[in-house]
């Protein structure tokens, strides 16, 4: 349980840090989309969201780690890529199909997502290995 808690916290921090850097690059693209699509985002709720995701990913890794190929950091990267492929790609695909937002914004979310999940997977794997 200690690995899940520490891994979840650190994965959440890693994802928040990536969002903190990349999200400002998307603000102009968001502003160009129809305003009816957006509601004001609470930074506190976003941070809570990423920490909850971090805990979910850390728990999932603790259950699935023996099924993830690779070893060391490579194992964490592969876990992050698997989560990205299974979780983010379908969501972005339906967003692209059904929402009237710029393709460049979806591409930026794609980049942000792959970085978030690789970082989270790597952090979780390192915590799992070290503790």
Describe the structure.
- The chain has four helices and no strands.
- It has 131 residues and is mostly helical.
- It has one domain (2-130).
- It has helices at residues 2-32, 43-64, 73-98, 103-130.
Topology:
Blueprint: H1 2-32, H2 43-64, H3 73-98, H4 103-130
List keywords for this structure.
82% helix; mainly alpha; 0% strand; elongated; 131 residues; single chain
Number of helices: 4
Which value, in Å, is the CA radius of gyration? Answer: 16 Å
> pLDDT below 50 for ≥5 consecutive residues: which ranges?
none
As a percent range, the share of helical residues equals over 70%
Provide the structure class.
mainly alpha
Mean pLDDT: 93
- Which word captures the global form? elongated
- Write down the secondary-structure element order: HHHH
Number of domains: 1
Strand content: under 5%
Q: Span between N and C termini?
A: 11 Å
Per DSSP E runs of 2 or more residues, the count of β-strands stands at 0
Instruction: Give a quick account of the main beta sheet: strands, pairing sense, barrel closure.
Output: none
